[in-house]
Amino acid sequence: MITLYHRSDCPFCWKVRIALAELQIEYQLVDTLLGEKHPEVIKHNPKGSVPVFIDGKTVIWESNTILEYLEDVYGPGKLYPGSPAQRSQQRLLVSYSDTVIGPALRDQVFEKRSKPEAEWDWALINTSEQAWRKCLEQLEEWLGDKPYFAEQFSAVECALLPRFGIAETYGAMAYQDFPQIARWFAQMKQRRSYINTYPVSFIQSNI
Ligand SMILES: N[C@@H](CCC(=O)N[C@@H](CS)C(=O)NCC(=O)O)C(=O)O
Q: Rounded to two decimals, what is the model's pTM?
């Protein structure tokens, strides 16, 4: 049985949960909390971060390496479909999600998550909004009128959807200026793998 050490609202963990759900793989989840150093996570991961994925003797502690493993072992062509050239573009978008979109959203998420509204630093939030807007402009162009970023649902959606879910939860800019992205996200939000992996903490804060 696969075990995933995760935090419900961590975008890297959510990415892996969506991939596991898409491939219909059974697994057990071990919850960790914000700021917690879970002893099993420290034992298995020299970086101490989540997700940590364990499949028998295989231990993986980088979300993209987990997705590559799932693709290789459980679903060739399902997470990274198509030719080597197409797969290279999917990997680039996954990396863009981690290294550009994540940092763009980070400041407003951290501000809003850690402080009461009266103490929010609006200069930080506004700069983050501008960076997020630039990401949306870029994504709108890449998506065009296609249903997915690649030829089918892929690792790209696994990586992007958590970022959009987090942006929505923390009230980042809505998508009226980005009709293709608005259409794509409205469609993706109905997907079982998104709904069934949605962070418990977001559901609780929305009640
Ligand atoms: N590159 C890693 C990033 C994982 C990561 O940054 N996880 C955060 C939670 S969103 C974490 O565990 N932070 C706590 C820590 O690093 O101690 C991956 O893709 O798995």
A: 0.96
